[in-house]
Amino acid sequence: MEFYAHWCPSCQHFQPAYEKVAAYLNKEPRTPPEVVVARVDCASESALCNRFHITHYPTVKGGRPSDFDLGAGENLEVWNGERTAEGLLGWLGEKVGRKYDLNVPREHAEEQPSSAPARKAPRHPTQVDLADVTSATLLAFQYMVNSGDLLAGLESRQAFIDFVDMLLLSHPTDSCRAGCALVKGAIHQLWPPTQTTGPSPQIREYQICGMDTHVQDWHSCKGTKPNSRGYTCGLWMLFHTLAVRTEPADRGGALWMTAVRGFVQHFFQCSECAAHFVEMASQEAAAQVTSRRDAALWIWRAHNRVNKRLAEHESTAHDGDPAYPHEQWPPAALCPLCRLPALEEGGEAQWNEDEVYRFLVKFYGGVADGKRTGLGLLGRKQLAGDRRVSHTSVITNAAIFCAVVGGLSGAYRLRRVALMRLRKSPSAL
Fold first, then answer.
1. Which reaction is the catalytic activity of this chain (predicted)?
2. How far apart are CA 51 and CA 53, in angstroms?
3. How far apart are CA 58 and CA 117, in angstroms?
4. Cys-Cys crosslink for 272: which of 10, 164, 353, 359, Cβ 3.0 to 4.6 Å?
C-alpha cells in the first residue's frame, strides 16, 4: 500500500514506477501468492493515514490483508529501498518467497509525435495571485491540524505557533489575519504548553481565513497535467509573499526564516522536498537572514535552486508539465533589468540582486486583499528605501511575536539568533 499526497512532487516522480509494479502484479492470470497493490491519497484521507501513522510521503507499507484490516497496522513493514520499479518488485518478491522478473512491455515508450497543435505557452502573471496564496494558506492549515503524529511534541507546538504568528503579521488578506488572531488567542486552551500529544481536536474547527473563505480552483498555479503545480506552487507563492511583507523590515527576516523552516520541517510531508528545503535552511546563508530584504532574496535563491534541480530531473524523466517547465525566475520578459549580460552563450544567469529585490517587492508586495492594483502602499514604501511601515497594529503584532519567541528555550539555532536580534532593539519590546 502506498500512502501519498497528490500534490507531493516526490510522489509524482515515484508514481510511474509504482504503477508499473501494479500493472505487472495485476496481470491476468494471477499466480499465487496473490499480491494486491493499492494507493491512498492522504491529502483527502487524512484520518485513514493517521491510523497507519504516516508522517511523510510517499510511504509504502506491506503485509497481509489481515494486518491492514486491524487498522493501525503494527505488523506492517515499511519499504525503505530505492524508489524504482525493480527495487519495489524485488522487495515484494522477498516478502512472498518468489522471484519476479519485471518484463512488462513499455507502452507508449516511443509515441509518434502528436498531430494536435502545440499548446500555446501561458503568459507569465505580472502580480502574485492572491486567490492562490489564500488557497495555499487554507490547505497548509488544514494539513497541519490533520497531520496526526506530527503534532506530538513541544517542537511541533512551537513550529505551529511560529507559523500562525507569521501569517498574523504578514499575510496579505484581512480575513486570514483575522482568522490567525482567533487561533492565536485560543492556542493556550486548544494546545496547552504541557500537552505534548498535540492540540485538542477542536482546533480543526477553526477557519484560518474566516467562515466565508474557501479553497478555490487554482488560477496561476493551475497545471496542464493532473496534479501538477497546485499546492506546492501556491505554497511557494505564500512564502515569497510573507517574505516581502515580514515585519519589522530591518529584522523580521530572522523570524520569517524560523517560521518557514519550522513549518517545512514539521508539517510539509513530502519527505524528499522537505529534506532538500531544510538542508538549504540549515546552511550559514540562512542563519544570516535578518531583514525583510534578506528573507526575500533567500527564498528567491532557494526557489531557483529547486527549479534547477527539478529541470535536470525532468530533462531525463520527462514527467514535468510541458507548459510550465522549471526555469530560473524571473524570466527576462518580466524583469529585463534583473539579469546581467551573459558572459558566454548558454551560461548560467547572472543577477542584479538590487533589481531582483525591487521586482520581488513589486510582484509579491503590491496586492492587499485584492482591492488595490498596482504597487500599493507596502510596495511603494519598500521601493522608496525599504523603510519601516509604522502602523500601530504591526508594532503590536511584532511585540506579540517577540514574546512567543522570548519564551522558547532549547529550540532551533535560527530562533535563538532571531531572539538575540530582537532583544537588541527596544522598539520591538
1. 2 R'C(R)SH + O2 = R'C(R)S-S(R)CR' + H2O2
2. 5
3. 35
4. 10
Do the domain assignments include residue 200? Answer: yes
CA separation for the pair 310, 313 (Å, rounded): 5
More confident residue, 157 or 81: 157
CATH code assigned at 6? 3.40.30.10
Handedness of CA 400, 403, 409, 411 (dihedral sign): positive
| Identity of the amino acid at 85 | A
Q: Looking at the predicted structure, is the pLDDT value of residue 104 above 90? A: no
Same domain, 69 and 136: no
118 Cβ contact partners less than 8 Å away, ≥ 6 residues apart: none
Other CB atoms within 10 A of residue 362 CB: 21
Give dist(CA 34, CA 25) in Å, integer. 8
For residue 96, the cross-strand partners are none
Distances (CA, A) of 360 to 353, 357, 403, 410: 10, 5, 30, 34
277-313 as b/e: b if 16+ CB within 10 A: bbebbeeeebeebbbbbbbbbbbbebbbebbeebeee
In a domain, 136, yes or no: yes
Q: Are residues 78 and 190 in the same domain?
A: no
* Range with the largest mean pLDDT of 102-116, 155-169, 324-338: 155-169
**pTM greater than 0.85 (yes/no):** no
What tens digit of pLDDT does each residue of 369-385 get? 433 333 333 433 444 44
CB-based burial label for 365 (10 Å; 0-12, 13-18, 19+)? buried
Cα 108 off chain centre by: 32
Whether 318 is covered by a domain: the verdict is: yes
Residue 328 to residue 419: CA distance in whole angstroms: 34
pLDDT at 345: 54
CATH number where 177 lies:
1.20.120.310
CA pair distance 265, 181, nearest whole angstrom: 23
Q: How many domains does the chain have?
A: 2
How far from chain centre, in Å, is Cα 158? 18
342 and 405 co-located in one domain: yes
Q: Which three cell numbers stand for residue 367?
A: 496586492
For 235, 410, 417, 425, the CA distances from 414, given in Å and listed in that order, are 21, 11, 5, 17
C-alpha cell at 300: 528567491
Which triple of cell numbers denotes residue 179?
Answer: 482568522
Do both 274 and 417 map to the same domain? yes
In a domain, 416, yes or no: yes
Range of the domain at 217: 130-428
